[in-house]
Write a structure and sequence with these properties.
2 domains; single chain; Cytochrome Bc1 Complex, Chain D, domain 2; mainly alpha; 162 residues
Length: 162
């Protein structure tokens, strides 16, 4: 009788252990799948991050020389107060930006810097790296922002072909 009771007790404890272990594994699996879902909704590649603003899609083709010329003029008139191409000034160096960020993100940063700085993690990081200096809203048109993007594409294209 004592041997049967010990066996029964052993089985009860064993089943309890298996049930606890199984439910904790299910809990871990649920946590892992929910973290996978939340991670999947956030872009992991900066080139997939479109930022926050009116630009949801930009169709790029061959670099357009007339837009490059216009963008260069806008850059020299409005952007050089804070930016240089090859080195950090008040804001970050812009050479290579089209290789690091999506075109939509770049245009949204130009058009919507206030909201980008508040909501976009990359923009927040850039402000942090610039000792709190924030990009001024220059109230440019989408056409001007597109010209600036084209100028930056041309700069990056010429530097990668050298």
């Amino acid at each position: 009788m004592k041997k049967g009771l010990n066996t029964l007790l052993f089985l009860i404890i064993g089943f309890g252990f298996v049930a606890c272990n199984s439910s904790s594994q299910k809990g871990r699996q649920a946590e892992e799948s929910s973290s996978a879902i939340s991670t999947a909704s956030a872009p992991t590649n900066p080139l997939d991050d479109k930022g926050v603003g009116p630009i949801q899609s930009v169709q790029l083709g061959a670099i357009q020389p007339e837009l490059v010329k216009k963008g260069e003029a806008i850059f020299n008139e409005k952007c050089t107060a804070c930016h240089r191409l090859d080195s950090r000034y008040i804001g970050p160096a812009l050479k290579g930006v089209t290789k690091r960020q999506a075109p939509e993100w770049i245009m949204n940063m130009i058009l919507n810097p206030d909201v980008m700085i508040q909501q976009d993690p990359i923009a927040k990081q850039l402000v942090s790296e610039s000792n709190g200096a924030v990009m001024a809203n220059l109230h440019l048109s989408e056409e001007d922002a597109r010209a600036l993007l084209e100028y930056l594409r041309a700069v990056d294209d010429s530097s990668s072909s050298q």
